[in-house]
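[audit] Reproducing an earlier prediction to check determinism. Same input, same settings, fresh worker. If the tokens differ from the archived copy the diff job will pick it up downstream; this log only records the rerun itself.
[audit] input (178 residues):
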Amino acid sequence: MQNAKMNSWPSVSAACVLWISALCNLQAAPDYFPLEKGNYWIYRGETKFLVKNPETGKNEPKSEMLTWKMEVVDTTTGVLLIDAPLMEGKVFGGDLGNRARGRYCWLVEGEAGFDPKQFPAAGKLSNPSDFIIVYRAAPEHQILDFVPGLGIVGFQYVHHGTLSETNLGLIEFGKANR
């Protein structure tokens, strides 16, 4: 498999969008998002963007495969990442006016079953569900697939103007060596 260069802007922007925008009330549900120091997630997917062709001066679409490893190196308490527990129809983040319009906030749009067999390090998950959490804004939308006890298993970012898209899926999860 081809890996994208980690210094390319799509890789960096995808990672920043994924981790900065991912809105677990960790105090309420410490096992909901397993953010113990040393835990890691590896994602793979495609990112698309425009690059200026130096010969023509025109922007041309480009696509790269991206492999990204995220590891917990430090934690803090009291930060809202996912408003646990999740349930279909739940809205969080953003202000009340935007929540009413379904924009600039996170909405749990759906819930589906999830088979965690490919991620044995997650341990036994009771009734695993994949929650589809969507953030819609005028210029973009983001979709997170979140499994309690495992974390983010999928991420999609789509800009509604200039080509900028990323679609990542979890390929490996590892627990800290303790």
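[audit] rerun output stored. Observation attached for the diff report: The CA atoms of residues 32 and 148 lie 5 Å apart.
[audit] end
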